[in-house]
Write a structure and sequence with these properties.
The protein contains three helices and six strands. The radius of gyration is 16 Å and the shape is globular. The model has no long low-confidence stretch (mean pLDDT about 95). β4 and β5 form a beta hairpin. Helix content is about 25%, strand content about 25%. It is α/β, with parallel strands linked by helices and about 140 residues long.
C-alpha cells in the first residue's frame, strides 16, 4: 500500500519479494502505487499504465542481479496520461519522528509527501505526476 521510492527500496516488502526472486535467478519488476488521502486510485486506469510499462520493459534484456522498481503517481481522473521516465533512486530517507509511549511502546511517523526530493529522481518524478522506472542492480 503506497509508493516504494528512494531509500524505501531497502525496507519495502514489495521490492524485497522481487529482490529475493532475482537472487534466485528469476526476473522481476516491483510495481507500487503512490497514495494520497485526497485521491482514490482508479485501478482500471493504473492497470493500463502497468501494460504500458510492461510493453516497454519486457523486450529489454535482463542482466543477472537486475530488476526494475516502478512507481505510479497519484493522479486525478482529469489528469493527462503520465509519461514514463527512467530515474535514479533518490538517496534521501523519509524524515521520521519517534516517540516513546506507555507500556514500553515506540511509535514513529512521517509525512510521505513532505520527503526531500532530488531533482530528476524517482521521488521527484512520481510526485510530479509521472511514472518512475528505476533500474536496480544487486551485483
Amino acid at each position: 500500500h503506497g509508493g516504494n521510492l528512494g531509500a524505501d527500496v531497502y525496507y519495502s516488502g514489495t521490492v524485497a519479494a522481487v529482490r529475493e526472486g532475482v537472487l534466485h535467478g528469476w526476473p522481476g519488476i516491483a510495481f507500487s502505487q503512490y497514495m494520497r488521502d485526497d485521491i482514490t486510485p482508479d485501478w482500471q486506469r493504473v492497470s493500463l499504465w502497468v501494460a504500458r510499462v510492461l510493453e516497454l520493459l519486457l523486450p529489454k534484456p535482463v542482466l543477472p542481479g537486475q530488476f526494475y522498481n516502478v512507481n505510479f503517481p497519484a493522479l486525478t481522473a482529469a489528469a493527462d496520461e503520465p509519461e514514463i521516465v527512467f530515474t535514479p533512486l533518490d538517496p534521501n530517507p523519509l524524515p521520521l519522528s519517534y516517540r516513546h509511549e506507555e507500556n514500553d511502546r515506540h511509535h514513529y511517523d512521517g509525512v510521505y509527501a513532505a520527503r526531500p526530493r532530488k531533482p530528476g529522481s524517482d521521488v521527484d518524478t512520481c510526485f510530479g505526476g509521472r511514472i518512475s522506472v528505476t533500474d536496480i542492480r544487486l551485483f
